[in-house]
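Dear colleagues,

As part of the handover before I leave the project, I'm documenting each prediction I ran so the next person doesn't have to rerun anything. This entry is a single chain, and its sequence is reproduced below.
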Amino acid sequence: MTTLVLCVDRADDIGRKSGVRTPVVGWDAVRSLVTEVGLADPEDAIVNSILESLRVARDLEDGGEETVVAVVSGTGESGVGRDRALAGGLDSVLDRYDVDGAVVVVDSAADERAVPIVESRLPVDSVDRVVVRQARDIESTYYLLKQFTGDEELRETVLVPLGIGLILLPVLLVQFSPAIAVAGLTSLLGAALLYYGLGVDEFVETAPERAREALYSGQVSVVTYVVAAGLAVVGASLGAFETTGSGTGDLLVATMQFVYTAVPWLAAAALTASLGRLLDELIRDEAVRSPYLNLPFGVAALGLVVRGFAGWFLERRAGRAHLTILDVTMSATQRLALFIVAGIVLALVGFRVTTRVSEETIDEALDDVIEVEAGERPDGGEPDDRGDHE
């Protein structure tokens, strides 16, 4: 059994500080790399990470296993570019060496995000995260703060929102009361933490590249997403107009009026977006996966049910007129029951359609297999007479 001991440097600290390009493979080469990186920046945690990879490889070899120790880095301005470069380096290592599993050595949570890339190519037996111990005194605290302010990613995620909040605090105190100023500042800091904590920053960072690829590839979903965004804005605007124009002081009634007015437009936006994904699936694969086919039915059913509950509440609380269908006036309860039943029926229809399409796809695949085993080509051509199929 041969194990790959892989040290991951997703941020390319090795290349930026020492100028060495990766991948670096082999015990002697990696040990020389430690010297290069250590002389360039002895305080960088990547030095400890490389040393840990050498220690793990030595321990595995002492236990009778064969090992290959390697260091790979990610290069590029965006997270996607770094991950692709890291994946390319890993592929070059796997092309040269035949390994059965991997032990991944990382020194940060950012490097640990690259573990799924390794797992997609070979089994990962263990993830070894290196934590550097520091003395607990004032000098060490100052050192850690200095390291913290020197980290570009940490500065962007923590210091920038904090600095903006401190700048806005005096302005808010001059214009508003202390309670409103503190509430606005904490809301701003909370939004910044959610922005980075939920990974919205990475989504925004890669959005232009994904949009450019979608435009160049001619995806229909680009247009339908724009239409869906417009419909969503129209629905939210109409809901807001309905709420402000009613003049009601009841917050719950105003919320239900907004929901009742906006839900059809929001459902139409979701249907338009899902239609674009369906068309992209049909164009690219000439087939549709079950989740994309079932999504429009689920969205429509959910919209019916939500609008039914909102209408029932408005009839009982705000005196909205009863629903009339074919000269038959329904009470609030009958109206709610009608919308719920319609939503359930629509969801069942979507499930049935999805199941039917999936069964047909499976049957076609089985027919193709049978034709190949019988010596016939699935595309209707002549049988293959070059030999028997196993």
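The first strand starts at residue 2 and ends at 9. The two ends are 31 Å apart (CA to CA).

All the best with the project,
I.
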